[in-house]
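User: Structure with pyridoxal-5'-phosphate, tokens only please.
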Amino acid sequence: MTKEWLGGTTIFAEMSALAVRTGAINLGQGFPDTDGPEEVREAAVRALREGKGNQYPPGPGVPELRTAIAEHQLKRYGLVHDPDTEVLVTAGATEAIAAALLALVESGDEVIALEPYYDSYAACIGMAGGTRVPVTLRPRNGAYHLDLDELRDAVTDRTRLILLNTPHNPTGTVLTREELAAVAELAVERDLLVVTDEVYEHLVFEGEHIPLASFPGMRERTLTISSAGKTFSFTGWKVGWVTGTPELVTAVRSAKQFLTYVASGPFQYAIAEALRLPESYLEGLRADLRAKRDLLSAGLAAAGFEVYRPAGTYFVTTDIRPLGESDGFAFCRALPERCGVVAVPNAVFYDHQKQGAPFVRFAFCKRTGVLEEAVSRLRGL
Ligand SMILES: Cc1ncc(COP(=O)(O)O)c(C=O)c1O
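Assistant:
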């Protein structure tokens, strides 16, 4: 196996270091610059003081959180999960992805992933000994789309699973009901498992998020991954989870116990409370991010970028060709010096790097004043 991830640093580390060195505004890495709700922070403090989670929590996660996750899946999506056997708490979605792939993929298995893909997918498929088979999302009419024929053609006798991500980082695409139904039909027809990364499930501005597990025939073949990081703006707490059948969840737990074993004890109690916040919290989060999306998208368009306004997530992908540029890497490396803003080149999310070369991603999960300043700096381009 070629360990292509060995010795490298991620583009986020490189660009964040560049931001620090140049004093640029960092719209590269996707973390909010304000913390989540005060009452959730207080819940974590209370848990620490009351000695909840200060020692190893139970391997599958504390029962309070597993119950809250099962309630969330039922209330929002009508998905019934037994909190004892069908819910597993992980160290963020990152560990859930790693453990799922390590548990389910055998050496030589093919894993289909939507390209551009979140960077840990490639590394984890590699660590599991699998071969990744990218299916490229293509820009059309201002948004990125899944070509269902291409997806169908990518399935071979060696395909073990499809690794899906919706809402999708970095393109901001939210797969439609029709697209998801087609993925589901294909998975059933070819008897495939699907691991679906839905960490941006609550950050949808247009359309709706529909979990793949809710489609006919999918509950028994889908592992659904989500996380508190994006939904509650506590990316440092690393509380994530997996839901699925007892067999699939047990498989993931078997791998997980040798990765972190357990993590984030007191924060698990706090996120159990966060999941029960009133709907107004999520509405407020979405309204805030929608306004920020519009602010940054308009600013980028005014600066001369072609903008793919995202339907979900907190990223906006742009095409730099209208600026007379074509190499996203060179563009992003020069941008801090040119105008004091950091972005990331989408090419790092591609196997077919040429496909991604002219695209650049900006994050808008930042304070309005920071985005306004970034927009004003970008105007100087
Ligand atoms: C698509 C996607 N999956 C997973 C993660 C990681 O989630 P966590 O911080 O919960 O590990 C991210 C974070 O950026 C992401 O964009």
